[in-house]
């Protein structure tokens, strides 16, 4: 069992909760169950790009003295007595740490050593994080604390931990605050003004959905579904419709099982119009994969904008991904083909292919994306394995038309909804899922790397309607 796998068992209760006596062994990156899932290799680049400079020297624990020994003893006792949760352990380790520096590196290494982490893995994790802080120019603990916890959660595969889910729900709830305010105001007035279910109630409910940017057809369909549920349950009171609505929204977002296994490397085609946040979304996805120990390559097949290539290269360097590009104006399909060839030769785990977001004519879009898909599949059977459409939540109904166009032009397997934070049009997620029957896999809730989070239909319904786990109002 690898170090990080062993820690996961501690969290799940599968082994002793003694953080000092976890028995582990080191594994290599080639092992199928590698413990290096949480310890990415140092950032790698295209040989044609500029070097990032000399390697950052390893962080080392200082020689023990009386003061540090006493501090270590106190930390050890606190860790041993603490609840085995990532957030709790991190709070103990970061107590008294205000900024990046020797104290932070010592504390992080102390935590990893307390978990009996192999020296090489502990050093790699800390060095990777320190290099990232340097690239991002973060100094104060408040600037990167959530990122540190996010990296550990990814590395340990603990996003489903209660604390992480609570943090995610708060983010989603905050992001949907404007949408919820608009929707809740209408629903509250509607329920207060109607006691019995009648045609007027359903008509007004439909109008509220349309105002929340569901669109006419999805709003009509949602009301019809609610009517049917109400009839089946023989409901007569309007207040009872709230629970029906939350259950229906959860059902809309329910995703059927699918085969996720692929013949490596996994190839992901990223599509979407310019301005939706596609470039940063690619970076955030690559960052997630890097934190899980995958070797990642990003190919810049949007060759019509030199700025797009440069921006993507900067992000690739920041997250430590390989980068492949050609000069602006090159054939996008040739970029994809060469990147695919290189990914196969260099043992890449996942290849992200960025594409142009031009919508001058549907014909050009179909031809270009079709050609890219063809050359990828010709070089690597089954590629692309996924086509991800990135849409901007703030565009409201435009997101529906974009989804329709790209679905017809290139085929779409899943959606990522960006800029959900601060929009009053968050209801478009329901409309897209209802009209196009596509799963929403991630949502963007801010600018930071940890702000791209897995989408959860139940949490979205709760956040949208302002309900907690027990179905009670949160506001």
Structure description:
With 475 residues, this protein is of the alpha/beta class. The protein contains 18 helices and eight strands. Strands 3-2-4-1-5-6-7-8 form an eight-stranded mixed beta sheet, sandwiched between helices. Helix 16 links the parallel strand 5 and strand 6. Helix 9 packs antiparallel against helix 10, helix 12 packs parallel to helix 13 and helix 14 runs parallel beside helix 15. The longest helix has 18 residues. The chain is flat and about 75 Å long.
Proportion of helical residues: 40-55%
Please compute the radius of gyration using only Cα atoms: 25 Å
- Largest sheet, described in full? 8 strands, mixed
Give the structural class. Answer: alpha/beta
Instruction: Assess the beta-strand content as a share of residues.
Output: 5-15%
* Sequence of secondary-structure elements: HHHHHHHHHHHEHEHEHEHEHEHEEH
First-to-last CA distance? 45 Å
Overall residue-averaged pLDDT value: 81
Strand order of the largest sheet: 3-2-4-1-5-6-7-8
Which blocks of ≥5 consecutive residues have pLDDT under 50? 14-55
Shape: flat
